[in-house]
Amino acid sequence: MDLQRLARTVEEALERVATAPDLAELDRTKSETVGRRSPTIQARRGIGSLPPEQRRAVGKAINEALRTLRGAIQERRAALKIEAENVLLEQDRVDLTLPYGRPRRGNHHLLTTTMNEVCDIFRSIGYQVAEGPELELAWYNFDALNTPPTHPSRFESDTMYVESPGGEERSGPDELLLRTQTSPMQARFMEKHPPPVYVVVPGRVFRTDTWDATHSPVFHQIEGLAVDSDIRFGDLKGTLAYFAKEFFGARTRTRFIPHFFPFTEPSAEMLVWFNGEWLEMLGCGMVDPNVFEAVGYDPAEVTGFAFGMGVERLAMVKHSIRDIRHFYENDLRVLGQYR
Ligand code: DAH
């Protein structure tokens, strides 16, 4: 083989090495370019038959060619190994940072949160929490609460009456209805517990109101009742003003204005100064002696105050919610904002 051909052979071989796509092909290339039967090795064997003055130069060229080729093959082998490993790694890859199917963390409905907050405030000053039935007797919803049969809130235009399960006619105190307020629990609670009483009652109430931005036929109230041997109007004001500061913030101002409720005398409405206005927050008053009589308490022995507030109203004022219907439409985009 002359030196020119050798150079060409080496060039071709280097090209094959550089482009060998995998280790098997590289092995084949190796045996064909530097293996025992490769042209270069054959040529080395033939050196002896060359004229003596050529041998040295050809021998040197062939050895160099072999060194170059072996070096190139080694390099290519290393590169192919890394490539193969990378392919394996890529195929086996587990991305630990990928998000997995984590369940969305839920939260209480804002009405539940609000009721819990209010109940906690009163619990912290010694009140207990009780609940009562939503299907109620007119006696507890009205009569025991000093509300006469002719009172307009008893009309069907305000109150949802319910047929008795046996279908029998009921009238007056025996009529069944969906409670229009949580106040009936005042009477139920006092019937079961001797004084002193400090209790709050969260619950659902029902009225024949038409669904609009500020009315719903179903809403929630929290009732409160404190009865003891010497409770005065100052206790009512102090307790409810304290509640307002705890619920709306320490600097909250309150005002009490006269009102009327059948079951309290005197009665009042508590207003809260919020965002530049006086807002009606709740009804309250000193428990009417007639209520004590209706539940078997002696009005000469005890006095007390009561109050009732709308949960939706509290939440709407505190969180600047403009439409009561947001509470019931169960849109998670709304409900998820109140965690
Ligand atoms: N039950 C009344 C209502 O539904 C609210 C209320 C007012 C409750 C005065 C009371 C109270 O206990 O003393 O509007």
Fold and architecture overview:
The protein has 339 residues and is α+β, with helices and mostly antiparallel strands. The protein is 41% helix and 20% strand. The chain is built from 11 helices and 10 strands. The chain has helices spanning 3-19, 23-33, 39-45, 52-91, 110-123, 138-141, 184-192, 233-248, 289-295, 311-319, 332-335, and strands spanning 128-129, 135-137, 161-162, 176-178, 197-206, 218-228, 254-261, 264-274, 277-287, 303-310. The chain has a 7-stranded mixed β-sheet with strand order 1-5-6-10-9-8-7, with helices on both faces. A 3-stranded antiparallel β-sheet has the order 2-4-3. The longest helix is centred in the N-terminal third of the chain and has 40 residues, at 52-91.
